[in-house]
UniProtKB/TrEMBL annotation:
Residues 85-139 form the ATP synthase alpha subunit C-terminal domain. Residues 22-78 form the ATPase F1/V1/A1 complex alpha/beta subunit nucleotide-binding domain. GO terms for molecular function: ADP binding; ATP binding; proton-transporting ATP synthase activity, rotational mechanism. F-type ATPases have 2 components, CF(1) - the catalytic core - and CF(0) - the membrane proton channel. CF(1) has five subunits: alpha(3), beta(3), gamma(1), delta(1), epsilon(1). CF(0) has three main subunits: a, b and c. The keyword Transport applies. InterPro entries: ATP_synth_asu_C (IPR000793), ATP_synth_asu_C_sf (IPR038376), ATP_synth_F1_asu (IPR005294), ATPase_a/bsu_AS (IPR020003), ATPase_F1/V1/A1_a/bsu_nucl-bd (IPR000194), P-loop_NTPase (IPR027417). This is ATP synthase subunit alpha, mitochondrial. It holds the Pfam family ATP-synt_ab. PANTHER family: ATP SYNTHASE SUBUNIT ALPHA, MITOCHONDRIAL. It is found in: Membrane. Belongs to the ATPase alpha/beta chains family. GO terms for cellular component: proton-transporting ATP synthase complex. It comes from the Eukaryota.
Length: 143
């Protein structure tokens, strides 16, 4: 942001916009939206999603299960994400996100299954280990 810039505001289509007279710089916004029963397709969440470069979806169910940060990786997205990562990080993060999403799906399915084969049991155990590895202990509520 140019220190000599002047911030202009304008209102169009019922939305406020901000512009720097110098034509340089950017503005960061961190909108926080509470959903009703986790419904991101409702009017306000859907509109906020459409104008932001991504979203982190926090889940009360994950939080109550002791998973911190309680980020639902299945519906959290970033339009910048991998473009800002080095190649090695992209490979690791992509595989990890996929594995965690598959684990969450398999874990939900396994609740209703009474007889799981060895491969499924191994995949569930690996997913549980990954989840434990990624938990962050610095949460003030966990102390």
């Amino acid at each position: 942001m140019n220190a000599g810039g002047m911030l202009n505001t304008c209102k169009s289509d019922g939305k406020w916009c901000f512009q720097w007279r110098t034509g340089e710089g950017s503005m960061t916004a961190l909108p926080i939206v509470e959903t009703q029963s986790g419904d991101v397709s409702a009017y306000i969440p859907a509109n906020v999603i459409s104008i932001t470069d991504g979203q982190i979806f926090l889940s009360a169910d994950l939080f109550n299960a002791g998973i911190r940060p309680a980020i639902n990786v299945g519906i959290s997205v970033s339009r910048v994400g991998s473009a800002a990562q080095i190649k090695a990080m992209k490979q690791v993060a992509g595989k990890l996100k996929l594995e965690l999403a598959q684990f969450a799906e398999l874990e939900a399915f396994a609740q209703f299954a009474s007889d799981l084969d060895k491969a499924t049991q191994n995949q569930l155990a690996r997913g549980q280990r990954l989840r434990e590895l990624l938990k962050q202990s610095q949460s003030p509520l966990s102390q």
